[in-house]
Predict the structure.
Amino acid sequence: MNSVVQEEQTGCAIASSAAIAGISYEEARKVANSLGIYAADSALWSQTNHIRQLLSKLGIQTGNKEQPFTSWQLLPNCALLSIKWHIEVNS
């Protein structure tokens, strides 16, 4: 898997999807935008259904549900871990 540069400050889901699908950020962004998925939409930052929808459109099968992280050893060969790096409003 090759790395993909995240071209928008909040475009981690698009960049991750692009890397998994083996396409460029711009190609993944176009597909995401056609699905109504935009990196700047803060409503998407904490949900997984949008990245699942994007990956599906890119031909990538995902698991049926989120799984809590328990250990590095139990992760499947391809997994996305969500990390909240930004400070929420007033928190």
